[in-house]
Write a structure and sequence with these properties.
This protein is mainly β. It has strands spanning about 5, 10, 20-25, 30-40, 45-50, 55-60, 65-70, 80, 90-100, 110, 115-120. The strands form two sheets. Strands 2, 4, 5, 6, 9, 10 and 11 form a seven-stranded mixed beta sheet that branches. A four-stranded antiparallel beta sheet has the order 1-3-8-7, with no helix packed on it.
Length: about 120
């Protein structure tokens, strides 16, 4: 079982910044990648940013140039630095990690509890 711990949500004014963090722990797994998805009321959950153990990154178009995902090591913790926040960024942000059990040819997803990000004037 993989455990995810998220932190860093909050409320900021437009143009402000927040930094989210997500750390995964567990044994018997190979960590392939980790990232953030967000879900606003009435909307489907969408990818915000993702980083693989090899350092490759992927961003939503709305996040490019404003958000930066990074990691302290090949696994975790992962940080999402969010700058120039806009009201439309308001959502619950969920961390997700993709892991592969050692010796088994499949991948499993684990989700964090979510962090509320509110951007309001």
């Amino acid at each position: 079982q993989v455990q995810l711990v998220e932190s860093g949500g909050g409320t900021v004014h437009p143009g402000g910044s927040l930094r989210l963090s997500c750390a995964a722990s567990g044994s018997g797994f190979s960590f392939w990648g980790m990232g953030y998805y967000r879900q606003a009321p009435g909307k489907q959950r969408e990818l915000v940013a993702f980083i693989t153990s090899g350092g490759s990154t992927n961003y939503a178009e709305s996040a490019k140039g404003r958000f930066t995902i990074s990691r302290d090591n090949a696994k975790n913790p992962v940080y999402l630095q969010m700058d120039s926040l806009k009201p439309q960024d308001t959502a619950v942000y969920y961390c997700k990690t993709v892991v592969r059990p050692l010796g088994i040819g499949r991948y499993d997803d684990y989700w964090g509890q979510g962090s509320q990000v509110t951007v309001s004037s």
